[in-house]
Structure formats: structure tokens, C-alpha cells
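TOPIC: backbone geometry
CONTENTS: sequence, C-alpha cells:
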Amino acid sequence: MRVLIDYRPALRERSGVGEYTHELVKALLAAFPASDAARALDLTLFSSSWKDRLAASPDLRGATIVDRRVPVRLLNLLWHRLGWPPAETLTGRAYDVAHSLHPLLLPARDAAQVIMIHDVNFLTHPDRTRAEIRRDYAPLARAHAHRADRIIVPSAFTAGDVERRLEVPRDRIAVCPPGAPDWTPRASPPADGYVLFFGTLEPRKNVGGLLDAYERLLAGPADAGPHVPDLVLAGKATDESRPWLDRLARAPLLGRARHIGYVDPAKRRALYEGARLLVQPSFEEGFGIPVLEAMTVGVPVVAADRGALPEVLGDAGPLVDPERPDAIAHAIARVLGDAAFAAACTAKGLARARAFRWDRTARQVYEAYQHAIEHRRCASA
């Protein structure tokens, strides 16, 4: 099977989509090596950028790399609006599957077309999106989804949203959750650890609600404030994050909460290991990779009862209404103050994380490719 994957989401500063892209490629290469004649995968990774180059690395060994010096915005405009140039022309190769890791198609003449929709927040709250996502996703996603031969989603929650909001038949949607990282659990939580938030600082992550909750913790009983761990916000800042960052420079958050910016994948495990707990108070998530990563290390999690977060966390931690800062604060305080409860959350989280495996994801995606090829064949008959 000859597959082309648009690797651009993972080219630099990998967030959730980029991390899924990179780890999926690794898993596919491991699960379907060229030596397996019956199910060999001929995998090509495509990248385009005016300044950033995709180079070969040990993680990508076994894949063919096609790197074009074409500005991302220009190529996206051509692909999204005109459906040109087709993948075969741009890369000089033929494919059975062309896989886009976002909701808009990677144009192809002959290949079956697969898209991935991580969430439909761009439809639910277009005001929370920016740049090309705001320009293209909302007006184009429905048409592209109906033209796709298969749609991959990371959760049952997103599958339901795609079926309902984009009116796509459920039998053309494949749920392929990400796998947990291959990290061993930490020996014990650090006594001087911090409260961690991990994600891009954007409106749907509810950073403002988290800061409100943390201020409530600091304003608790007179002798409680100094014993509340510091708050660490990890993730890339956006234009919308300025009000939150300004709050960190004023009392009562000054000296107690800090933003450390984007964290390189090689340093993420250490970031989790230093945390007392992770708080993921998002208004909506298509999956919630930080929740899975935290559970893998043995970090208790407090998460919003919205989107796919309950699907990921299950009963391994408290689920709270993200619109109630007092509820977020209460859940954080319970994990911090009740050692037995925190230990129970850790144990359940470790067990739950073991159910998410990248080798399983690779098999599910490979099956989705097979269904896409069959759909394309029947449509062309």
C-alpha cells in the first residue's frame, strides 16, 4: 500500500495535532515494515515550507521524504480553494492513499483521500479560531468531508460531532485514538511539585477559568495560601493569551504562577514528573493528549466534563464544570489535600493509560486506509 501523509503539522513546535502526526508515522513504520511482504507499507511524508526543512531522522527511518520549498500559506490556498496541484504532480509519485491530518483534503488524482478531524471547535466556536483555520475550515470542511473516502477521528465524541454537524454517514468515520507514550511511571509524586496546565494558550482551553480557580485557592483560609503549590502554564502563547499573561505579572498571581512557553517533546516527560497534578479545564477537546500523558507518568488529573475529556479520563480523576471556577478549585484542593484520593487517581490513571497503544492505532488507521481504497474503487466503478 502506497500512502502519502501530510507531515507539515509535525514540522515544528508539535502541539496535539503535530504530536499525533509524528507518533502515527512512527507507529505505522513499526507495525507495517517493508520486510512484511503481505502488508508492507510504502510510506511517503510530504512537507512544504519556505524556511523549515523536513530532514531524515531515526524516528522516520523507512519513510520516503518529499520536501518542497513552497510557502505553507500559498500551498494551502491552492489546495483548499482550487484543489490543485494534485499530490502526484507535486511529489512525482503515485499513491493508493493521500492522508491529510486536518479536516481539508490533500488533493490527489487517483489516490483515495483520507482526512482527520480532531474536533469541530472551528464550527462550534469560530470566534475561538484564528488565521487559516478561521478562513478555511468552517466554510469548506463540510464539502471536503463529503468528498473524503474516509474520515479519521481521535474519539467517539468527535465521531458524533462529525456525524451530526457535517452530516457524514457514521460508517465512513473511523475512531483511531492516540496511544500513550512509552514512559515508565514515576516512583512517587514530588513533595514540592506544581499544579500543571499543558496546552496552547487559546480561548477554548479555558485558561482564564483556571486562573480564577487558582486565585480562589490562594485566597482560601488564612494559613492555606502559602501551601498551595505554584501554577505552571506550559504551552505556546497566542494573540488571545495576552490578558492571561498580564494577570501573571500582578498580585495575587505574581510569584505564584508562571508561563514557561512551548515545551519540546524531549522535555515533556520531565515536565509531568515535576507536577503534583495536571488540570485540563478546556471547554472542548477532541481528545486531550496531555491527560493521557499525565496518566502514563502517574500524575493525577482534574479535567473538564466536556468534549472527549470524560472519554479519556474515565473514573481516574474528578471531572468538573469548566464554567465554575469554584468547582475547579475544589477539585484541585481535594487532589492536593487527600493523599489517599490522589493515590487512587494515580492507580486508575496508570491502568487506563495502558489501554491506549500506538500499535493498535496504527492497525486501526491501516484498516481505515483499506476502507478508503475500497470506497474510492466503488465510486469510480
Notes: The first helix runs from residue 16 to 31. The CA atoms of residues 213 and 325 lie 4 Å apart. The chain has 14 helices and 13 strands.
